C-alpha cells in the first residue's frame, strides 16, 4: 500500500490566513473550518519574528479552538516544521464544520511558557484569516477582544503577508 501523499494540518494562529501559510507551504489547500474540542487558545512567550506572544493551544475541559483544516503535500512537512520553529508537532482530532472528523497535524508550544500578549500585527493576521475562512462569528468576536501589546514598530513577516494580500 502506498503512503499517502498528503496530510491534514489544523491551523489556529497566523496560518489561518492562506497567504501566510502559503509563504513557505504553497501546496496548502483549504478543506474545512474545524473545531478542536477540550482545548483553549492561549498567547505565550515573546516572538522576535512577531514582536509579541504567539498562539498555542492548551488542554481545557469544555474548551473550543476554531481553526482551518488544510490539505498539504507531505513534502511540505519540513518547511511547515521549520516555520513553526519551537513548536512541537502533535496529532489532534478535529470536528469539521462539514460534518467530518479529521486526524490532523498541529503544533503546540510546550506547557510552561509565560503568558504574552500578541502584537497588533500578529493579531491582525489571525483575524484576517478567521474572516477569510468564515470562522464562527462568536469566535471572531473573541479573537477581536484579545488585548494586544501595542507594539508599533516594524514586523517584516507582517509586511511580507500584507504585500501578498495587496497583489491579489
UniProtKB/TrEMBL annotation:
<protein>
    <recommendedName>
        <fullName>gamma-glutamylcyclotransferase</fullName>
        <ecNumber>4.3.2.9</ecNumber>
    </recommendedName>
</protein>
<feature type="active site" description="Proton acceptor">
    <location>
        <position position="84"/>
    </location>
</feature>
<dbReference type="InterPro" id="IPR036568">
    <property type="entry name" value="GGCT-like_sf"/>
</dbReference>
<dbReference type="InterPro" id="IPR013024">
    <property type="entry name" value="GGCT-like"/>
</dbReference>
<keyword id="KW-0456">Lyase</keyword>
<feature type="binding site">
    <location>
        <position position="122"/>
    </location>
    <ligand>
        <name>substrate</name>
    </ligand>
</feature>
<feature type="binding site">
    <location>
        <begin position="9"/>
        <end position="14"/>
    </location>
    <ligand>
        <name>substrate</name>
    </ligand>
</feature>
<dbReference type="GO" id="GO:0003839">
    <property type="term" value="F:gamma-glutamylcyclotransferase activity"/>
</dbReference>
<dbReference type="InterPro" id="IPR017939">
    <property type="entry name" value="G-Glutamylcylcotransferase"/>
</dbReference>
<dbReference type="Pfam" id="PF13772">
    <property type="entry name" value="AIG2_2"/>
</dbReference>
